[in-house]
Specification:
- This protein is an all-beta fold.
- The strands form five sheets. Strands 1, 2, 17, 18, 19, 20, 21, 22 and 23 form a nine-stranded mixed sheet that branches. The protein has a four-stranded antiparallel sheet with strand order 3-4-5-6, with no helix packed on it.
- The chain has one domain: Methylamine Dehydrogenase, Chain H, CATH 2.130.10.10.
- It has no helices and 23 strands.
């Protein structure tokens, strides 16, 4: 089954593209400034395989990498974004619950939930190159500068050496001085860290130096009606497209993906 297929053309709430568009390259406000708030403007709707318990997304040119979870079902797929063809798949051992992924150089790094192990795969072939261990749980991961940034379901982001996974530093995510817990899938884009907040329809943009939340987007309108009876089918999966400045978003077992532009409302 193809994961991606074109479904509908670009559209906003009123069919226009008016309004300021928020991107990760916008400067942070002064310390203590209230966060930006955004709405999501859907550019394109794409089909998504409802069998996939999506944990992480990463765009690399014409290729989309997607990691999926659950014991006995965890895998990583590389998909041609134009045709939806699955190019290659890596299947994890049945006792591994895969989580987020990121690309670092010519490697794909995939976290595991409670197995304290990150799997290192060759990006071109998915051959396993090695494994590194870490303490605590693994949820989301993205690459920023010379670090990989990981989440563990708390309000803490950990910046690690990408080769050894040794922690270099941490920041605590704060929204108006309150902790933002349940940080899940991560995407590093133009110097910021974007995070799904698990069990919510919210994505937050986090300053990697201070942990301050500098932007919030709530997206309840994206959740497909067919998933309302599935408590686990939450918004999860963020990939930034550098070619368009938009974000590819989906959820666990969702029938659709969305290419979304964040439009500032305040």
């Amino acid at each position: 089954m193809a994961i991606l297929a074109f479904v509908s053309p670009a559209c906003g709430d009123d069919g226009t593209t008016t309004g300021a568009t928020a991107t990760a390259s916008e400067p942070y406000g002064p310390p203590g400034a209230p966060p930006d708030t955004w709405r999501g403007q859907v550019v394109t709707t794409l089909a998504h395989d409802t069998r996939l318990f999506t944990q992480g997304l990463e765009i690399d040119g014409s290729t989309l990498y997607e990691s999926t979870g659950l014991y006995g079902q965890s895998a990583v797929r590389a998909v041609d974004r134009t045709t939806g063809t699955v190019l290659r798949t890596f299947t994890f051992p049945a006792n591994v619950f895969a989580e987020g992924l990121t690309r670092v150089g010519d490697q794909i790094i995939v976290l595991s939930w409670q197995e304290h192990t990150a799997f290192v795969l060759d990006a071109a072939t998915f051959a396993e190159r090695g494994r590194v261990t870490y303490d605590g749980e693994g949820w989301g991961i993205c690459a920023l500068g010379g670090d990989v940034v990981t989440s563990d379901g708390s309000d803490v982001l950990t910046f690690r050496d990408p080769a050894t996974f040794v922690p270099r530093r941490t920041v605590d995510a704060r929204l108006n001085d309150s902790p933002v817990r349940n940080l899940n899938e991560l995407e590093c884009a133009n110097g910021a860290v974007y995070a799904n907040v698990w069990k919510s329809d919210r994505i937050v943009r986090i300053d990697p130096q201070t942990g301050a939340v500098s932007g919030v987007v709530d997206l309840p309108e994206l959740r497909p009606p067919a998933t309302t009876g599935d408590a686990d089918a939450v918004l999860n999966g963020i990939a930034y497209d550098t070619a368009t400045g938009t974000f590819l978003l989906t959820g666990k077992r969702w029938p659709v993906m969305y290419d979304v532009r964040f439009v500032k409302t305040s």
